Predict the 3D structure of the following.
Amino acid sequence: ASYGPNPICKGCLSCSKDNGCIRCQHKLFFFLRREGMRQYGECLHSCPSGYYGLRTPDMNRCSRCRIENCDSCFSRDFCTKCKTGFYSHRGRCFRGCPPGFAALEGLMECVEGCEVGQWSEWGTCSRNNKTCGFKWGLETRTRQIVKKPAKDTIPCPTIAESRRCKMAVRHCPGGRRPAKTKDKKKKKKNLMERAQKQHSIFLATDKTSQ
């Protein structure tokens, strides 16, 4: 039978013009649909979004998913598909995956991610494998991968990082620095000798001209 514009009595064992289906045929699910202030019963092969099928000896029913942001669920407390923008994790829906889990964007699921240990202390400040002879260098710290991700497509976080540092020892003992100082003194001595020689030539030239 059909009452009004919708075939509300399809699949019903008993039906009311005002309330729609009251009892459904075997294997169908009873769903109470609300439209504004009105509500009526329907008999469906599968429950709509946000509901799951609950089978009972008396009558199969569509029961609402009680999990927040769930689009479809397996049972009252286990979501199988979350609403758009939410990730599914162990039957729940999250805006972002919990710590230790990574997001699979295509499936919108949270899977076990790459687990890393604690950062080590910062290493010695060095440059070109030397700890002296420069004003600035780099120091590095590392951490180990404790657990590899379940999927190869999930990258691990950074396990090494470096930062600029100031050398504790600017000049290397016994290095090239003293040689440079000696060279400077030698250059200065040569310049003095050249200046004196030029001055002597100037005086000699001046006497000749007189």
